[in-house]
Amino acid sequence: MTYLWTEKHRPSKVSQVVGNKEAVTEFLAWIETWRKGRPSKKAALLYGPPGVGKTSLVHAFGKENGWEVIELNASDFRTREVIERVVGAASTLGSITGAVGRIILVDEVDGIDVRADTGAVQALTRLIGETRVPIVLVANDPWDPKLAALREMCQLIQFRRIPKPTVASVIKKIAASEGLKISEDKIKEIAEKSGGDLRSALNDLQLAAAGDLEVAERDREKEVFAALTTVFHSGKYSEAVAALQNLDLEPAEFFTWVLDNAPDQLTVEDLASAMEFLSKADLFLQRVNLKQSWGLLRYTVPLMTAGVAVSKKAKPKQFVRYSYPSRIRFLSSTRAERELLEGICLKIGRALHMSSRKARTEMLPFVKLMLTHNGRGLAEFFNLTQRELEYLKGESVSRPARKARGRSP
Amino acid sequence: MAVSDGSTLPWVEKYRPRRLDDIVNQEDVVTALKNIVQTKNIPHMLFTGPPGTGKTATAHAFAQELFGPRYLEDGLFVEINASDERGIETIRERVKTFARSVPFGGYGFRILLLDESDQLTDAAQHAFRRTMEQFSTTCRFILAANYSNRIIEPIQSRCAVLRFKPLSAEMVSEMLKRIAESEGLKLDDEAVSRIYEYSLGDMRKAINILQSAASLSSKVDPVVVEKAMGYVNRGEIRRMIELAFDGKFSEARDLLRQLIYFQGYQGQDIVLAISREIPNLFVSDEVKVRLVEALGETDYRIAEGGTPEVQLLSFLAKLALVKRVSV
Predict the structure, then answer these.
(1) Where are the beta strands (DSSP E) in B70-137?
(2) What backbone phi and psi angles, to 5 degrees, belong to A139?
(3) Among partner residues A268, A276, A369, which is closest to B228 by beta-carbon distance?
(4) CA dist., res. A116 & res. A119, Å (int)
(5) SS3 label, residue B100
(6) In angstroms, rounded to a whole number, what is the distance separating the alpha carbons of residues A45 and A31?
(7) How far apart are CA B181 and CA B186, in angstroms?
(8) Which residue in B224, B273, B84, B209 sits closest to A365, CA to CA?
(9) Set of chain B residues whose Cβ sits within 8 Å of the Cβ of A282
(10) Nearest neighbour of A355 by CB, restricted to B83, B94, B198
C-alpha cells in the first residue's frame, strides 16, 4: 500500500474524468482546433478549486490519445532560463505539420513568485506567442493580477467543485475496487468533508482504510495488537524482541505504535522509564535512516521492545484497548488545515522577505490579531484568499485569549 | 475605537529601512558597507545577528546603493531563503541559473542573498561552499544567519563577517514613537517600555506588538499591550509543562504536537522556552537541577539527530514524576 490512491486511480481516459462535463467539452473543442492546425487560442488556462480534476484531465487526454505531456509545476523553479530550456525546446520541436502529439502543462501558475521567479511570466507569455504545441496552464485563482497578461492569451476554462453525491459515488466505487468494507455513513462523511475536492476525499478514504478496524487492514492490525501485548505484558527480553521479528512491519512503524500506546498502558513511573528507552531507540533509529547504518537496529529493536517490557513494573488495573497511533491520526485529520496554513505562511513570507517557517513563528501570531480587528487591507497586501482570511480570523476567535504569561511573575 | 486605516500594510514592511542611512544601531556595519560601495570592491559577506536587527533590510539597502533603484527589476540582486528551498540541490540549481550569465549594466557581478542560511545542514553548507567558489567571478554572496556558530568554518573564512547587534531600548523606543506619530496613535512611555520588555532588541517584534495593540485601540497604553500579548503569547509552553506535571500526559502530547505542526516551533525552540520556564516552576531547587539535566540531555539528543517530538515526549514523561512544592 505504498501507492497514493490519488495517483493510482487517476483517470486514464477523458471519459473517466468525474464531473465538470462542460469544462471537458470546452477543453476537447480547444484541442480539436489545434488538431486542425488552427488553434483558437494557443494556450488554455484551466482554473478552479483544488482536487477537481484540472491536471487529471490533461493527463487523461494524453494517455488516451498517446500524446506526450510535458509537465512543469510549482516545485520546478521557473526562472526564464528554465522555462525556455524545458518548455521552449518542447514547444518548437514539434512536427511542422500541425503540432499534434504533445502538450505542455504548466501546473500551479498562480504559484509563480514574481520576485523569485524572475521573468517567468514574461517568458511564458512569449512562449505562448511562439509555441507550435498546445500549452495548458493550471491555476486555482486566475484573477491573480500577475496573471493578467497571460489570461488574455488563454482560453479560460472554468472547473467547479464536484457535487458531493458524485464524490460519494466515486469513492464508493474505488473502495469496492480496493476491497474495503466501508459503511455508507463513512462514505457520506468523507464526501461531506471533501467540500467537492475529490483528491482530498480519496486521501481521506485511503486513511480510513489504514485506520479503520473494519477494513481490509484488520488482520494485520490484529497482528500488531498481538505484538503490542507481548511488549507491554510479557516482561521478558527475548519475547519482547521476538514480537517485532515475527511481525511484518518496519521497526520505524512499530516504534510509532509502541510510542503512542505506551501512555495508556503504563503508570506514570513506568511511562517515564519506557519513554527514556524509546527516546534512545529513536536516536539510533534516526541514525539508521540518516546514515543507512543498519547495524544500529541491533540497539533500536531491543530498546523499543524489551526496554518497554522491563519498564513495566505495575500490574495493569484494567485492560486498555490498543489504538491506532494517535500521531498518524493527528497528522491525517489536520492535513488539510496544515496545508492551508502552510500556504498562508508562504504568502506572508514572500511579502516580507522571509521563509514560511519564520513567517509562521515571527509574524503569524501578530497577523492573526491584526486581521481580526481590521484586516481587509492587510489581507489584500498578503494576497490572502477569502478562505484563508476566514481561517485566520476563526482561529483567533475559536481559541480565546489566555492570560499572557510571557513575563516572569 | 479601533483604528481604521494605517493597517493596510504591515508596519514592519511600511517602516522597513530602505537606505543604509536608515539602518539604526548598526553603525559599524553601515560604515563598512558604505566603504564597500565606494570602492566597489565587494567581498562575500556573512551577516549575523539576532532576529529583527535589520540583516535582510540592510542587504537590500546595500544592493540598492550599489546598483541603483532598479536593482531588483534588473535582476542584479536575488534573495533565496535557505529554509524554504527544499535541499541544497535546489539552491545550487537556482544559484546556477542566476549566476551563470554576466549581468548587463557593466557591474560584472550580481548579488545573491541567502537568507536564514543557518537553516542549512552542515552537509548542505559544504556543498554550498563549492557553489560559492564556482560562481564567485559573476556572483557575490551575502549570507544572513542568526547564529554565526551554525555556519561552518570554511564559509566563514571566505566571508567578511558583519555582526548585527540587538537594538537598544532607546532605538526601539524612538522608532515606536516615530511610527505612533505618523500613524496617529497615542502611545505612552509605559507602553513603550512594556513593548520593549516583550521584544527586547528585536525591532520586528516590537513593531508587530505595536501594530497588534493599535488594532485593538488607537490609544496604546500598557493595558492594551498586555491585552494584545494575551492573544499572541498564549503561554502554551508553560501550560504543556503543567499538564505533564499533573500526569495528563496525553493532553501535554497533543499540545506539543500543536506547537510543532501548527505553530512551527522547532525542537530546539521548545527546549529553549522550557529552559526559561524552569527557574519559575514551583519545585525544589534540587528538582530544578534535575530538570535542567534532563532537558540538556533532550537538547543534546535532538542535536544528535533524534526526533524532536519523541525526545520532548520523553522529557514530558519525566515531569510527571516531579514533586511540586508550594511557595
Answers:
(1) 77-81, 110-115
(2) -150, 155
(3) A369
(4) 9
(5) coil
(6) 13
(7) 8
(8) B209
(9) 301, 306-307, 310-311
(10) B83
Do B212 and A366 touch, CB atoms closer than 8 A? yes
Residues of A in contact with B259 (CB under 8 A): none
Q: Do domains B11-163 and B234-326 have the same CATH topology?
A: no
Residues across chain A: 409
How far apart, in whole angstroms, are the C-alpha atoms of residue B262 and residue A105?
Answer: 33
Q: Which CATH number fits the domain B234-326, given the four candidates 1.10.3720.10, 3.10.129.10, 1.20.272.10, 2.60.40.150? A: 1.20.272.10
pLDDT, one tens digit per residue, over B232-274 is: 877 889 999 999 999 899 999 999 999 999 888 888 889 998 9
Give the pLDDT mean for B319-324: 83
pLDDT score of B183: 93
B303, three cell numbers: 542535536
Q: Which residues of B touch A274 (CB under 8 A)?
A: 317
Which residue of chain B is at minimal alpha-carbon distance from A277? B314
Among B51, B84, B229, whose Cβ lies nearest the Cβ of A349? B84
Second-level CATH architecture of B169-229 = Orthogonal Bundle (1.10)
**Using a CB-CB distance cutoff of 8 angstroms, which residues of chain B are in contact with residue A402?**
230, 234-235, 239
pLDDT at A5 over 90: no
**CA proximity to B211, closest of B176, B245, B253, B260:** B176
* In contact, A196 and A20? CB cutoff 8 Å: no
CATH class, B11-163 region: alpha beta
Which residue spans within B175-317 are E strands per DSSP?
186-187, 219-220
Radius of gyration of chain B (CA): 23
A38 touches chain B (CB under 8 A): no
Q: Quick one: closest CA in B to A114, which residue?
A: B73
Question: Per the CB < 8 Å rule, is A403 touching B230?
Answer: yes
C-alpha distances out from residue A401 to A86, A366, A395, Å: 51, 13, 11
The angle subtended at Cα B236 by Cα A407 and Cα A385, nearest 5°, is: 110
Mean pLDDT of B198-225: 93
Q: Report whether A134 contacts A34 (CB < 8 A).
A: yes
SS (H, E, C) B195-226: HHHHHCCCHHHHHHHHHHHHHHCCEECHHHHH
- Residues 6 or more apart whose CB falls under 8 angstroms from that of B36 comprise B42, B43, B62
Grid cell 533565496 is found at B80
* Residue A396 C-alpha, separation from nearest chain B C-alpha, in angstroms: 8
Mean pLDDT of chain A: 81
Distance (Å, whole) CA A258 – CA A248: 15
Mean pLDDT of B191-215: 93
What are the backbone dihedrals phi and psi of residue B176, each rounded to the nearest 5 degrees, phi first? -60, -40
A122 CB-near residues (< 8 Å, 6+ apart)? A80, A149
Dist. CA A27–CA A23, nearest whole Å: 6
Q: Do B313 and A351 touch (CB under 8 A)?
A: no
| Residue boundaries of the structural domains of chain B | 11-163, 169-229, 234-326
| pTM recorded for the entire structure | 0.64
* Residue-level pLDDT at A306: 95
Question: Is A352 close to B7, i.e. CB distance below 8 A?
Answer: no
